[in-house]
Each structure stands twice: as structure tokens, then as C-alpha cells.
């Protein structure tokens, strides 16, 4: 920890807070979103038997070349948009002499402090994301914005950020950026929180469920009207959890037709 603190102090003395925040955030995106996403995509080629055994929707076909190209194009567009907005805000802060939105003190928080702050951020993020996601499933917003993300009913990790630009900003970026700002977290804590969120979103969209993370959100992409949150407790509060799924499956047994009410209501 002493070595890390020394390196952090050296970095603060060598660069502005704006430069550190921008490049540090970009590095976290590369390490914890792009690398895991491509690892998940490569599993059918590298480990076909293992991949087939662990797929949540084994009967679905893999992405075609054009679909993968389109996915890459949209995700890159969204990340570049976020990066330009981030860079613009940091540049404005630098010109006006504004204070950083995160704590850049020379003392890095200890593990206990980081853990407590990350837990608080997770709670706030769940509230922001759940209600933003529910809002995007209202008929008008679903048809105009959120339907883009639901193009893949059996998603892949890279498709976690396959979204309309408005959705990417309101439902992906802000629910992660706002909690550590509001709580006054250290920028290192923000990076830890961001890394966890990127790992989680790539995992739940991967189509695999190695750690028990992905099944809920995979069912959301398959059924549309269940599991709007990430942690599940607001789904329990609002009845969009497993109880809703049981209702859908009961309707299927009675009618013989798969029920995806979110999609039907939005059209």
C-alpha cells in the first residue's frame, strides 16, 4: 500500500487532476469492459465444449459477422461520445479553475473505506438505474430509444453498451458517475466502483452464468418485463422479480406461446 501511495503522490505532482481522471477512466474501460467482452466472445472458438455447456440460451445462434460489426460500431460510437463529453467537462473545469468532482487527496483511502463507499455507490446506482430502466420500457421511450438495446434477445457481453446515445448517457453513464460524485468519493474509489460495474454489465450480458450474476438480466432480454434492476431488491419491491416470471411461464403453459409483455406493450 505504501508503494501505491508513493506512486499516487508522484502522479499527482506530475499531472493535472483532469488528465489523471480522463486517462485513468479510459484505462479502466479498456481493462474491465473491452478485454472481458472479447474474452466472452472468443469462448465458442477457444473452448467450444465449455462454452456450449454454460450458455444460458444454448439454442441461440452466435452473432453473424455483420451483427458483430454493427455491435462494435454502436459501442465505439457510444464510448467516443462519453469520452468527448467527459473531456469537454474536464477542459471547462480546467479553464474556469473549477474543483474536481472527485476527491484527489494524496492519501488513498484504505480498503475498509473503499468497501463502504463502493457499497453506498451500488445502492444509489441501483435506484438510479432501476427507475431509468423502467422509464425506458414505457411504450414511447421503448419504441424510440430502448428497443435498440433489446435487439439481442440472447445478448453478448459487448452488447452491454449497444444502445441509443440517449440511453447510454441517461441509463449507463449517469447512474455510475453520479453516486461517487454525490458521496464525495476519492477518484480511486470511483475507478474501483466503475471497474466492478463494467465487469458486472459484461458478465450479465455475456450469455453465460459462471458466478450466478447473469441469469436475471438474461431473462430480462428474453422476457422484457422482468428484472429491470441489477441487484434484484427493487424488482422484489415492485413485483418485477421471479414472481413476475412465474406469471409469464404460467401463461405460456396455458397458451403454449412465449409471453414477452414488455415487447408487446411497447409496440
What do these coordinates show?
Mean pLDDT is 85; it is low at 261-267. With 267 residues, the chain is mostly helical. 69% of the residues lie in helices and 0% in strands. The longest helix has 32 residues, at 65-96. The protein contains 12 helices and no strands.
Largest sheet: none
Please report the distance between the alpha carbons of the first and last residues: 54 Å
Uncertain runs are: 261-267
Give the overall silhouette.
Answer: globular
Number of helices: 12
Mean pLDDT: 85
| SSE pattern | HHHHHHHHHHHH
Q: What is the gyration radius calculated from CA atoms? A: 20 Å
Number of strands: 0
Structural class based on helices, strands and sheet pairing: mainly alpha
Beta-strand content: under 5%
Share in helix: 55-70%
How would you classify the quaternary structure?
Answer: single chain
Secondary-structure map:
Layout: H1 2-14, H2 17-46, H3 48-54, H4 65-96, H5 111-136, H6 139-144, H7 165-182, H8 187-204, H9 215-223, H10 233-238, H11 242-255, H12 261-266
Helix pairs in contact: 2-3, 2-4, 2-8, 4-7, 5-7, 5-8
Task: Quickly describe the structure.
69% of the residues lie in helices and 0% in strands. It has 12 helices and no strands.
Task: Offer a few descriptive terms.
267 residues, mainly alpha, 12 helices, 69% helix, 0% strand, disordered C terminus
Amino acid at each position: 500500500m505504501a508503494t501505491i501511495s508513493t506512486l499516487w503522490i508522484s502522479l499527482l505532482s506530475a499531472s493535472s487532476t483532469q488528465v489523471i481522471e480522463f486517462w485513468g477512466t479510459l484505462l479502466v474501460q479498456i481493462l474491465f469492459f473491452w478485454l472481458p467482452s472479447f474474452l466472452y466472445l472468443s469462448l465458442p472458438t477457444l473452448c467450444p465444449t465449455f462454452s456450449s455447456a454454460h450458455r444460458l440460451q444454448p439454442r441461440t445462434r452466435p452473432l453473424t459477422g455483420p451483427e458483430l460489426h454493427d455491435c462494435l460500431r454502436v459501442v465505439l460510437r457510444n464510448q467516443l461520445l462519453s469520452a468527448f463529453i467527459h473531456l469537454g467537462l474536464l477542459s471547462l473545469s480546467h479553464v474556469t479553475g473549477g474543483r474536481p468532482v472527485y476527491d484527489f487527496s494524496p492519501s488513498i483511502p484504505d480498503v475498509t473505506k473503499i468497501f463502504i463507499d463502493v457499497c453506498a455507490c451500488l445502492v444509489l446506482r441501483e435506484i438510479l438505474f432501476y427507475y431509468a430502466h423502467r422509464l425506458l420500457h414505457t411504450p414511447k421511450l421503448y419504441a424510440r430509444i430502448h428497443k435498440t438495446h433489446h435487439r439481442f434477445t440472447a445478448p453478448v457481453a459487448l452488447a452491454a453498451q449497444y444502445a441509443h446515445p440517449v440511453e447510454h448517457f441517461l441509463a449507463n453513464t449517469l447512474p455510475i458517475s453520479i453516486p461517487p460524485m454525490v458521496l464525495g468519493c476519492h477518484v480511486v474509489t470511483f475507478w474501483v466502483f466503475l471497474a466492478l460495474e463494467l465487469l458486472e454489465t459484461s458478465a450479465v450480458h455475456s450469455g453465460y452464468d459462471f458466478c450466478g450474476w447473469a441469469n436475471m438480466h438474461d431473462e430480462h432480454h428474453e422476457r422484457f418485463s422482468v428484472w429491470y434492476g441489477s441487484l434484484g431488491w427493487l424488482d422484489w419491491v415492485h413485483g418485477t422479480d421471479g414472481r413476475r416470471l412465474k406469471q409469464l411461464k404460467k401463461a405460456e403453459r396455458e397458451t403454449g406461446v412465449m409471453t414477452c409483455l414488455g415487447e408487446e406493450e411497447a409496440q
